[in-house]
Amino acid sequence: MNNQPYLVRVLFRLLLALAFLGSQVVLAATPQEALEAALANWVAAQSGVAAEQVKMAAPDPRVQVQPCGGSFSFDYPFVNKENVRARCNKPAWQIFVKVGFTQQQQPLEIVVTNRDIAPGMALKDSDLEMKAVASATAGSFNEKAPLVGRQVKRPLAKGQPVVVHDLEKGQKAVRAKLAFKAGDLMTESAIERVDLAPGAGGNSPAWIATEIAPGTRVNKNIAAGQIIQTTDIAENRLVVVASSNLGAGQLLKPELLKLERLDAEKINRTHLFDLSGLDGSELMRPIRAGEAIRTSDLRPALMVKKGDLVTIIIGRPPEFMISVRVEALQDGRLHEQIKLRNTESGYVFSGIITGKGAVKGV
Predict the structure, then answer these.
(1) Which of 105, 302, 345, 356 has its CA 20 to 30 A from that of 98?
(2) In-domain check, residue 3
(3) Where are the alpha helices (DSSP H) in the chain?
(4) Domain with 276 in it
């Protein structure tokens, strides 16, 4: 009687264990399923395909796959590799199985960006690449050609598929109002911005400039009315540099200067891009040979010093003109107004400096 509760507990635990083992038996793979899984992994590794593509032919109904308590080993017993010999080491048995492959689905290819693209940019062939995907994004493209020259209206990250809704319906472009020669600087007054139909800009992308970068030049002749393309813009930008060491106060002359390439990220609007128009300017600080000259380095040159005798032109050539020598009562720079005195009469008046030792009446 005293042992009855103990026996009940033992029986209860035994029933739980049997129930657990029974569930495991239900969940465990059948001998054939275990063989198929191991076989698929081995053939996939040998053939360089996914295990899901390996198909095991149904065995002869008279051949039953026996449980394998140890491990499987496989080999190709024949040259054609259509049959695989499967062996179990515990208990020892073997079976020959015919294998095949399911048809692999061909991967889809769509166009994606290979770098970050900013809104308003025109797509170039080099901005795009093809990428294999399991399923195509709605509105995506399967070739690059229809996208070249099209402008994007939203930012695109590197690797992002390009879809129809990312593209502007029309195309913005820049058209030359005046003719350009190769090497000319681009100026706002010489261009106009226009809207084109998609692809109307030509075979290469139309150039778009919401703002012309300082120092931008054309690399070929461009006729007035021509749409300017990205291939028409010179990659290198040139700035004015000193051709030799120059001191403060040096009056600038073309032979003292030259154009040299400067990295685009170092260029800003304080740089000089043209050798013309610098006559009458002088340096405010020393400049080393090869150093870029900026607008902040320049000031109008001192053309007249106090006490100098300067020439004033009176009249309107060629109809009537008189030149008179007068005395400067002040230092003066180009285009500045200074006091002058007629040395004979003592009359004091004002004049504007037009050059070295030259003035005109106010």
Answers:
(1) 105
(2) no
(3) 4-27, 31-47
(4) 238-300
Number of domains in the chain: 5
pLDDT tens for each residue of 271-306:
888 888 787 788 999 999 999 999 999 988 888 999
277 domain-assigned? yes
CA–CA distance, 15 with 208 (Å, rounded to integer): 82
Based on the fold, state whether residues 75 and 53 are members of the same structural domain.
yes
Look at residues 181, 215, 234 and tell me which one is the last residue of a structural domain: 234
Flag whether 15 is in a domain: no
Q: Is the pLDDT of residue 151 over 60?
A: yes
Each residue of 172-189: pLDDT tens digit?
788 999 999 998 988 889
Tokens of 318: 């060629």
CATH code where residue 178 lies: 3.90.1210
Nearest to 56 by CA among 75, 28, 32: 32
The C-alpha atoms of residue 44 and residue 29 are separated, in whole angstroms, by 20
Q: Helix or strand or coil: residue 233?
A: strand
Q: How does residue 265 score in pLDDT terms, banded at 50, 70 and 90?
A: confident
Last residue of a domain, one of 211, 234, 257: 234
Q: Which of 296, 351, 344 is nearest to 328 (CA)?
A: 351
What is the three-state SS of 294-320?
EHHHEEECEEECCCCEEEEEEEECCCE
If you write DSSP's letter for every residue of 19-55 in order, what string do you get?
Answer: HHHHHHHHHSPPHHHHHHHHHHHHHHHHHTS-GGGEE
pTM above 0.70, yes or no: no
Residue 27: which pLDDT band, with cuts at 50, 70 and 90?
very low
Residue 109, Cβ density class (10 Å: 0-12 exposed, 13-18 middle, ≥19 buried): middle
Other residues' Cβ atoms within 10 Å of the Cβ of residue 310: 23
CATH code at position 271: 3.90.1210.10
Whether the link from the prior residue into 205 is cis, omega within 30° of 0, is: no
